[in-house]
Structure formats: C-alpha cells, structure tokens
Amino acid sequence: MFQVKHGLxxxxxxxxxxxxxxxTRTLVMNTDASDPAPKAAFEQLIxxxxxxYPDIKVEVNVFDHEGxxxxxxxxxxxxxxxxxxxxxGNRMRPFVEANQFxxxxxxxxxxxxEESLHSAASSMTIDxxxxxxxYTYYQWGIYYNRDAYAQAGVDPESIETWxxxxxxxxxxxxxxxxxxxxxxxxxxxxxxxxxxxxLRTNGYDFHMQLTSGEVPWTDDRVKAxxxxxxxxLPYTTDNHAAIDWQDAVANLVQGKAxxxxxxxxxxxxxxxxxxxxxxxxxxxxxxxxxxxARAEDAPTDTIHIPAGAKNPEDxxxxxxxxxxxxxxxxxxxTLGQLPINADSTVVDDPYLQxxxxxxxxxxxxxxxxxxxxxxPEMAKAGMEGFQEFMVRPERLDQILDRLERQRQRxxxx
Amino acid sequence: xxxxxxxxxxxxxxxxxxxxxxxxxxxxPGILMFAVYVVIPIFQSFWISFHxxxxxxxxxxxxxxxxxxLWWDDAFYTSLKNNIIWLVLxxxxxxxxxxxxxxxxxxxxxxxxxxxxxxxxxxxxQVVVGLMFSWFYAPDFGLFYTLIExxxxxxxxxxxxxxxxxxxxxxxxxxxxxxxxxxxxxxGLNAVAPDQIEAARLDGAKGWRMLWHVVIPQLRPAxxxxxxxxxxxxxxSFDLVSIMTAGGPFxxxxxxxYYMYEQxxxxxxxxxxxxxxxxxxxxxxxxxxxxxxIWKMWRDERGV
Lengths: 413, 304
Description:
Chain A is an alpha/beta fold. Chain A is built from 19 helices and 13 strands. By secondary structure, chain B is mainly α.
C-alpha cells in the first residue's frame, strides 16, 4: 500500500512540474550507452550541445546495452524519442523499410556531410537517401600477447600471410599455448573470424554478395573460405562454446592464448586485466590470397531520428552538431574509438593510430560486421552454423545446406 | 446449484435472480482478468500464427505456411526432443522429493532448520540457480569440470557439448524442483492419519510395505499436485536455458519456449508469426496434460 501511495505522489508531482519544462525546447534521446566509456562520452556530448544551444534541453534515457536491441522495437512504435542510437548498414534496414526512421538527407546536404563523413556514407544510404548520422567506428583485427609469442620463440612482426600464421600457431601450440582464443557463447565473436577469413579468401565484393543473400552458401568459394578457417581450428581454444568473450580476454591476458580476433573495444578489457602497450600487440588479419585487395571490418555506430519524433527540427540541429569534426574528435577521445569525420583527429593511442592507418589504406572496402551486413535472421543462422563448424568441422556440408535453405526462404519472402 | 436449497420453500423470483447473479458478480473480476490476460491472448496468438509479421510493419496473411515451415525445421525438432527429455527426467523430482520429505519427517532437535535448508533452492531465483550451475560446469575452474578432470584426466565442458548440455541444464532445474516436491509431500505427510499407521503397525506392516500400502495412498493429493507442477515446470522451462546456454551450443539445448522467444522477440528474431506458431504447438502439448488433469479433478469432485 505504501508503495502505491508513493507512486501516486510521485505521479502527482511529475504531473504538476511537467508544464514548467514545456516552456523550453526539449529533445528526448534514447541510448544504449550504459557502459562506462560510452556513458561518459554521451554525457559530455550532451553537455556541450546544451552549452551551444542553451534553450534546448536534452533528456536522456539510458538503456542496458543488450536490452536496447529489443527495446528499440517497442519505443519506436509506442513512444518515439527525438533521437535514438543504432547501427549502420543492413542493421538499420528493417527500421528504414518500416518507415520508423526519418530521412535526414537534408542534414547531410546542408552540412556537406557527403564530403566530411565520406567513409561511412555508403553504409548510411538506402534508396539514395541518408537515414542517420554516424559518429564512431572501430577496427577489428588480431590482438595478441607478445609474451606468449616470446615464450614460443615466434616473432609476431614476421607474420604476413595465413601460412605464416598457421606455422606460428604450430609453434605456439607446441609451447602449450592456445594460438587463437575466442568465446562463442554469445556467437558474435566468431562472426569476426568468418568475416576476415572470407574477406581475405574471396574479397569484399563476394563477401557483400554473400551477406546480402545474392550468392548461395553452397558456393565453392564459401567452401574454400571454410577450408582456410579449418586450418586454425586445431589451435583454437577448446570449449569456446561455453565461454563469453570476456572469458577469452582472460585467456589472452593470462598468456594461456596468444591471439584473439576482436574489435578495438576489447583493448579496455585487456588493459583492465593488466596488459600494457608493452605486451599487447595488434596486427591486421593476415593475407590469404595476395591478389585480393585488403578489406576490413569496422562497425559504425549511428544516431537516428525516429519517424515519430515530436521535435524533429531540434533533433536535426543535434545531428548536424554530432557530425562536426571537433565534436567527433572530442567524443571519440572518450570512447577510445575512431571518428568518422575526415577532419577530426585520432586520439594518440597506438591501437587506434594503427587501426586508423589500416582502415584508411583498405582498398578493398570497409565491411560493417557479419550481423550488420547480413539480415538479422541470416545472421543468427549463420553464426550458429559457424559455431557448429568450429566444434564439428566434418559437418560443413550439412551446415551449408541448412544456411542455403535459410537464404532461399529469405529470398522467397 | 447448492446455493438455492429447496428446503426454504420456493423463493421469490426476484430473490432467485439475485441468488443466481451473486456468484457471477463475485467471479467477475477474476473472469475479466483471466479473459484479458490469458484467454484473449491465446486467440490472438492463433491469429498471429497465420501471419508474417515483424512486430513493427504491416502483418500479411500467409495461411498455414508458418506451420509447414515448422514441419521442415530441424531446430523445431531439436526443441521438441529436448522438451520430451525435460518432461521425462523432470519427473524424477517427484520420487526424490518424496524421499527427502520422508527423511525430514521426523522430530529431532533443529529439524526446522534442516527443512528450510532443503527448501532453500526453491526460494532463490531460477536465474541464480542457472548462474551457479554455469560456474559449477565452467571449463577450467568449475568444480564439476575439475572433478571430472581429476577422475578421468580429461575435463568435459558440459554446456559446450551438444551431447550433455540438455542433461546439464535439467540437473540444474531438478535442484529447486525437488525442493518444491519435498515441501508438497511434507505438508501431505502432516495429514497422514496416525491411527491408520498405528493399525498397520499392529498388523505387522513396516518398511516398504508400510510406505507403499499405507502412506503413499494417503499422499495421493500431494502426488497429484507434485506431478502437475512438475509437468508444467518442465514444459515452460525457459529461464535456465536462457541463462545457462542461450540455446547453444549451436541450438542444441533449445526447448520450445526458448525457440519461440528466439524467433519472436530476441535480437535477431522478430518473426512474430513463426514464434506464435511455435507457441500454438506448445499450447497444444500443454493442453493434452492440462485437460487430463482437469478431467481427473472433475471426476474426483463428482466422486466425493
């Protein structure tokens, strides 16, 4: 009873105070920035925006990172905010097609974003229109433990091709260390391995055709990619299916494993575990076929205006602000990631500098990530197939048949 | 109806109408809630299962195609098979609960503390149970893993192995379920008539014969409830699967309720129609048991 009364009093209070706010302009923003670094970056971003536009007040609703992915469906239709963050590429397609995101091509045109945000422009464009503004991205690649390499007597700098890598793995394995670690309980970490093996074996264009469902999964080129992946399976951590990506971080930190295919966000976790710039190394995924232009995975995070926004004018001001070079520089300093705006500066951090170098010289193209490039249903089925392949490589044909059936079903819709 | 006994003579028409109305008035809030939150959603699920719908766009009528897709869906059969394993193995909770109840049904100093300790797993949340068992099974540092490693020289990561994963989760589920059955039997044992025990003892019954012929027949109501809650518990197993494996590795520990959630509501899902079709199948399976139970209760009530 007490609680009920309490709630009523609170409701009454809110009811009476709400009109006072109505005088100023309000922007409601829903975000999944619940982890420490993103949270700090968003708080700073909003404080700076409010300082520049004193008559606009931004109200932020922070959602749990994982919960946000399901919550967005509900709030877009039921109670749309003015701004919501999400991801680029095919991951935003369902919302664009369901008319849940607002076309913001005018923001792009007025602020010359086609120029300044050029690297992410294609992943923000559907039907020739832009549907949001990207503010950060980060590279994927191989993070490694120098101490583990030293113990096995291998020089990580000497690895350039996939054959080099496998040869190194043999030595590392002989030293009693897992060459490659990962945690596939949540599935997505292994999608990074598939992306790279396929990008290196078949190139960017093929990878994009495969993820968008234009090429059959039973294609021989897909099998070739899996054959390359199979070479590293004997040196991959056992029981990866039972552990999360953070548990695999522990393997690398403790020197039980030498390499980890991961996104740059994991650097914070490696360093929390006690690694330093001295013993944590980064290298691009090795070359498999040198006739293929190098392409990389670099997922982009974005902010959108829901179609049901109550204050789209001010939301567009916010997007224009977010796209600015100085804003992206400052925000990505806190995030520890890369800004999209070409005029921004990259924070002085060895991994980010290396990543920026690697991405800006990737002639092949920039992929978003398997679960953003493929449709959600295909992504789920695919990642489950990758996991099964890693545990039971002999079932590859069965797995590919199943994925192909799924692809045909999705194509038939 | 016994509310209008004829012994008081023929009541006035108005009074009779009121008497007929009163029970419905009392039932109305319950019926309303039940209709809004249970019955109507069941029919809505039926309706959605004939559509293709992502939850935000337009739903389009697809007839029975969700069901025909289910028919060819390997993942559906994996889930169905796991549900059956759950049903069979979960039943172990009933005899094991009885065993512990018999053991605890004695008067020694501090027995209440022991009873509450045995009941403890039912009090804590399923999520906590799932987490504890995940650590128990965890490769490299889990107690179970290290134990197996010490005995056989080779550790088994239960939750990463498609052969064992479902059994591992069921073991976690049995822990609280046994406690639940135990409490049901403990209350049942309080109601066992001491004079019958006395009489049986005079006739020379003891041990198994006493249990089988005198005690267990008197525990029938408790057994009935224990079976009902265990069947329902097995069919709606969701929390443990979600916490411990999220259906993995590669979908081998899915059960129908989790598969439904995955298809309809999870990060990569949003096939509301397909999820609803799975829900309808699960509902049909549950209906077999539920109607059995209701039929038995109905028969018992009339028999008395």
